[in-house]
Amino acid sequence: MAPEVAPLADLLDGLGRPVAVTLDQVKNAAGTGVLEGGRPGQLQYPDLSTWLAERKNWNAIPHQFERCGYTRVNNDKAKDGYWKVGGVGGRRQAVYARKDLSPAIRVKGAEVLAADRERRQQAEQELMAMLQAAAPAGQCA
After folding, report:
1. Distance of CA 46 to the CA centre of its chain
2. Element at 127 (helix H, strand E)
3. Which has the closest alpha carbon to 94: 36, 40, 45, 27?
4. Is the dihedral of CA 117, 92, 35, 123 positive or negative?
5. Which of 5, 66, 104, 106: CA 20 to 30 A from 122?
6. pLDDT at position 87
7. What is the mean pLDDT of residues 19-38?
8. Which phi and psi angles does 84 have, rounded to 5°?
9. How far apart are CA 121 and CA 95, in angstroms?
């Protein structure tokens, strides 16, 4: 495993292996130690934060996500394939989702990140229903 992959994998584990995540969320957690739900945590990865910020590494970032079990989810409704994360005033960003989930669940996870406040709760409920339906009998999603 490459040196930058282990901290990224640890960070994603610390975030609770979310269904979908953006690079901005990872950068924030790497630099500030913020866990899922905005809780402060001990996850400070200054070396990872620096590696993610260096322009020479930008092409390698998707490959590192792949090695950590995440794949990019394209937005088929946008010409550039990016998701506008954060509602109406959000930025266009790549969204990475867990490879072990179905393509439909990956897209729904990206939609949750891209949903505005009014739609987000409904999108989260739809995602949870999809995860529960996809979970093998006797296991929680």
Report:
1. 19
2. helix 117-134
3. 27
4. positive
5. 66
6. 65
7. 77
8. -90, 95
9. 19
Report the residue count for the chain.
141
Angle subtended by helix axes 23-32 and 5-14, to nearest 10: 90
Asked whether the beta carbons of 131 and 19 are under 8 A apart, the reply is yes
Residue with the two structure tokens 């009998």: 137
> Position of tokens 């790549």?
94
Q: How confident is the model at residue 102 (pLDDT cuts 50, 70, 90)?
A: very high
Number of neighbours of residue 93 by Cβ within 10 angstroms: 19
With contact defined as beta carbons under 8 Å apart, do 74 and 81 qualify?
yes
Helix (H, G, I), strand (E, B), or coil: what is residue 92?
strand
State both tokens at 40.
């402060």
33-37, 48-52, 131-135: the lowest-pLDDT one: 33-37
Cα–Cα dist 61/73, whole Å: 14
| Rounded Cα gap, residues 105 and 126, in angstroms | 10
